[in-house]
Amino acid sequence: MAGSKCQAEPQRTGPKRTAAPCRPSVGPHGSVVSAEIWSANLAIKAKFDAASWLERARSAAVDALAANGWSGGGSEAELVRYFVPLNEEVALVVSYARRKGIDVYFSVDRQAATAWIQAR
């Protein structure tokens, strides 16, 4: 993430790997919308701030994510495609999943996303 000093390689923590721990950046409205992405085999995961996606996403995409309980899957999901070129930790999870031939899943903090939208 911009401004963070995250390592590109996952950290080994017991049997599971996680992307380097990073603090989410503050979103454009001064709030953080915590989100997480993980591989289907749960071997690797990353946390990120979804506020920038909410700022730019089409209303229909946000509505669809909300209707799905603020979670989803697939490396072709709009939220994932948005963050792959912008966030090295998200890109690492997606790259790992593609190499393994498995999917990725993600979730966005419902309360934070709803508060962010209402503040807009």
Any overview of this molecule?
The protein has 120 residues and is of the alpha+beta class. It has one domain (30-119). Helices cover 37% and strands 21% of the residues. The protein has five helices and six strands, in the order E-E-E-E-H-H-E-H-H-E-H. It has helices spanning 51-56, 59-67, 78-83, 88-100, 110-119; strands at 11-13, 16-18, 34-39, 45-49, 71-73, 104-108. Strands 4-3-6-5 form a four-stranded antiparallel sheet. The chain has a two-stranded antiparallel sheet with strand order 1-2. A hairpin with a 2-residue loop joins strand 1 (11-13) and strand 2. The longest helix is centred in the C-terminal third of the chain and has 13 residues, at 88-100. The protein starts with 10 loop residues before the first strand and ends with a helix. Mean pLDDT is 83; it is low at 1-15 and 17-28.
Summarize the model shown.
The protein is of the alpha+beta class and 120 residues long.
